[in-house]
């Protein structure tokens, strides 16, 4: 209880205790000394009075002169105020005379001994209200008796009592004085400590601007200085921490990769925007939820199993799982999960990252499709070339068939060459290099006319219509590349429409740009298919019955149109047909730097 007192009260209490203890000790010492001295004085006086009476009464003792002895006793008692009695006793112990009146206190009769020789015998008697020293001395060496006087110790106790009172008053005064002197000192010590305590409380409640005065050089000054330093350090550490937390928050929030973290029981502690968006939820709707509440049952049990693995072994776990996103699409997701620990190094939960590998998986699938397609695409014309070459070698063919065989070999070789060109273009685009064009004046009407003419000859299954202005349409372009574009688009129109259907091609001028429109009446495409049609290896109808192709045509077409600073749009309706529109600037923009290889 006392320990909880404020410091200044403790200091005051200490000072007062010291004063009181010191005062009491001195009081005891002085009282004892004074009592001893006074008692010695009193006894000395008593003994000398007794001896004096013994001396002057010796004759009356010898003569047993009771009357005179009585007189002497009375006279001496009256003369000395502190003498309570005088008894005169013969050597047989009989009382010869006393200083009392008619009645003699019975208790005293027993005290009939007295000293012998020169010695005085002193006894301390407690006579109720006072202390009496009984002093017995012999008369004439005790040969004829002795006398006793009772001398009161009351003056001593009166003097001692007065002394004690005075000492107590002195202690009280010194105590008051000490209190008066200590109070300011105690307050001077306690005040800065109180300010320091207040400052520390303020600091713990978040006040970081507090500074204490350091205008003194004592321990308090050092303490205040240390506090100021500590407050500054706390401020700096907090600033650094806040910056780090902010950095992490921004990093996580803006990270395009979904990130989440959960506690050991599997409850979501937090996630970033990308994660919430992926699941089509608000962050608030995710935090606090378990896997069972967020995912379908089979997915939840898979994730929980992996979580247990991470928590059990402490090692990161990576696994791939097909997931349906909020947009209803299927994604191939690689989950990276790792343990995070608390400040004491104990496992605290799991942090996870969702890595979308759908494109990689799709691209890998498309690549492998591509390899088999390319092999197949090469195999068919090669088989034809080989077959006709053998026939030619055997020399068994008619002249007209020989010419036809050579034509076929030529056509198939051209197709092979075109495929090799496409593959080279792809390799070039894949390596990240921009397609640059060998641009020159190029009459679009002529270019289209020739290309369509070629198709009309080769593709007799379709009807080609061409609409163009009567005047030449000259633009700055790489003629061979533009022919490649038109051939690709026409070949698509033929491939993806029924035999006997029409293919319409038109061109014209729109201000500073010209356009080419190629329209077929074929199978058409859905909006989702159109979205991907320019992706490399993408094939909208990749079924076994679909016309062969590598899925590279439109990818290269777009690259060539881009290199001409042009635009390409596809409008298509499933089952009705497709319209491809290309718009090109009339004037060449940019400089010609290099040519594509293989041209
Ligand atoms: P490649 O042209 O390399 O031989 P491809 O024709 O399959 O092969 P692209 O020209 O890039 O490849 O076309 C991609 C896909 O777009 C095609 O597989 C086809 O499904 C679809 N497509 C392209 N043009 C048309 C069209 N005119 N009508 C319908 N579908 C088309
Ligand atoms: Mg094509």
How much of the sequence lies in strands comes to 15-25%
CATH class of the largest domain: Alpha Beta
Based on the coordinates given, report the CATH architecture of the largest domain: 2-Layer Sandwich
Count of domain modules: 5
CA radius of gyration is 64 Å
Query: What is the 3D form?
Result: rod-shaped
- In CATH, the topology of the largest domain is named Beta-Lactamase
Structure characteristics:
599 residues; 17 strands; single chain; binds magnesium ion; Beta-Lactamase; 16 helices; five-stranded antiparallel sheet; alpha+beta; binds adenosine-5'-triphosphate
How do the strands and helices of this protein lay out in sequence?
Elements: H1 7-56, H2 58-62, H3 66-79, E1 83-90, E2 95-98, H4 106-109, E3 121-127, E4 130-138, E5 145-152, H5 154-204, H6 219-254, E6 259-263, E7 268-271, H7 273-278, H8 283-286, H9 291-294, H10 297-313, E8 317-324, E9 330-341, E10 347-356, H11 358-394, H12 399-430, E11 440-443, H13 444-458, E12 463-467, E13 474-477, H14 479-495, E14 502-510, E15 513-520, H15 527-532, H16 553-563, E16 567-573, E17 577-585
Parallel strand pairs: 12-14
Antiparallel strand pairs: 1-2, 1-5, 3-4, 4-5, 6-7, 6-10, 8-9, 9-10, 11-13, 14-15, 15-17, 16-17
The protein binds adenosine-5'-triphosphate (ATP) and magnesium ion.
């Amino acid at each position: 209880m006392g320990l909880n007192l404020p410091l200044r009260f403790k200091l005051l209490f200490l000072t007062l205790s010291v004063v009181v203890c010191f005062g009491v000790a001195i009081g005891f010492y002085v009282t004892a000394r004074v009592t001893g001295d006074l008692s010695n004085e009193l006894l000395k006086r008593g003994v000398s009075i007794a001896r004096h009476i013994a001396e002057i009464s010796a004759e009356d003792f010898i003569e047993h002169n009771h009357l005179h002895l009585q007189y002497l006793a009375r006279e001496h008692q009256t003369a000395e105020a502190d003498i309570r009695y005088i008894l005169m006793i013969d050597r047989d112990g009989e009382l010869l005379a006393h200083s009392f009146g008619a009645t003699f206190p019975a208790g005293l009769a027993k005290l009939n001994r007295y000293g012998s020789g020169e010695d005085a015998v002193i006894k301390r008697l407690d006579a109720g209200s006072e202390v009496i020293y009984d002093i017995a001395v012999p008369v004439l060496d005790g040969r004829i008796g002795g006398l006793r006087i009772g001398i009161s110790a009351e003056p001593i106790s009166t003097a001692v009592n007065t002394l004690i009172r005075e000492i107590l008053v002195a202690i009280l005064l010194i105590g008051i004085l000490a209190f008066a002197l200590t109070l300011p000192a105690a307050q001077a010590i306690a005040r800065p400590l109180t300010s320091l305590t207040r400052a520390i409380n303020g600091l713990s409640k978040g006040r970081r601007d507090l500074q204490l005065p350091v205008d003194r050089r004592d321990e308090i000054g050092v303490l205040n200085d240390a506090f100021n330093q500590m407050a500054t350090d706390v401020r700096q550490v907090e600033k650094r921490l806040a910056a780090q937390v902010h950095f992490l928050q921004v990093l996580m929030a803006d990270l395009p990769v979904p990130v989440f973290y959960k506690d050991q029981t599997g409850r979501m502690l937090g996630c970033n925007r990308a994660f919430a968006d992926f699941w089509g939820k608000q962050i608030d709707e995710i935090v606090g939820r378990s896997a069972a509440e967020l995912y379908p049952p089979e997915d939840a049990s898979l994730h929980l199993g992996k979580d247990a693995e991470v928590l059990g072994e402490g090692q990161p776990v990576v696994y791939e799982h097909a997931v349906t996103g909020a947009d209803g699409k299927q994604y191939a997701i690689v989950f990276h999960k790792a343990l995070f620990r608390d400040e004491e190094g104990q496992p605290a939960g799991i942090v996870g990252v969702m890595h979308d590998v759908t494109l990689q998986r799709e691209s890998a699938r498309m690549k492998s499709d591509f390899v088999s397609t390319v092999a197949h695409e090469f195999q068919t014309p090669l088989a034809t070339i080989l077959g006709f070459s053998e026939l030619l070698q055997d020399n068994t063919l008619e002249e007209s068939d020989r010419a036809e065989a050579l034509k076929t070999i030529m056509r198939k070789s051209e197709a092979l060459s075109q495929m090799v060109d496409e593959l080279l273009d792809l390799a070039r685009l894949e390596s990240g290099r921009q397609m640059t064009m060998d641009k020159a004046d190029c009459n679009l009407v002529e270019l289209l006319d020739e290309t369509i003419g070629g198709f009309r000859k080769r593709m007799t299954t379709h009807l080609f219509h061409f609409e163009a202005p009567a005047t030449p349409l000259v633009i700055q372009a790489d003629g061979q590349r533009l022919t490649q574009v038109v051939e690709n688009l026409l070949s698509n129109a033929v491939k993806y429409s029924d035999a006997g259907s029409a293919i319409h091609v038109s061109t014209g001028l729109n201000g500073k740009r010209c356009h080419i429109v190629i329209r077929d009446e074929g199978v058409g495409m859905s909006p989702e298919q159109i979205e991907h049609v320019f992706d490399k290896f993408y094939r909208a109808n990749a079924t076994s019955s679909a016309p062969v192709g590598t899925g590279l045509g439109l990818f290269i077409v777009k690259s060539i149109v881009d290199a001409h600073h042009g635009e390409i749009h596809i409008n298509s309706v499933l089952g009705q047909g497709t319209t491809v529109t290309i718009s090109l600037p009339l004037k060449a923009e940019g400089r010609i730097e290099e040519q594509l290889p293989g041209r």
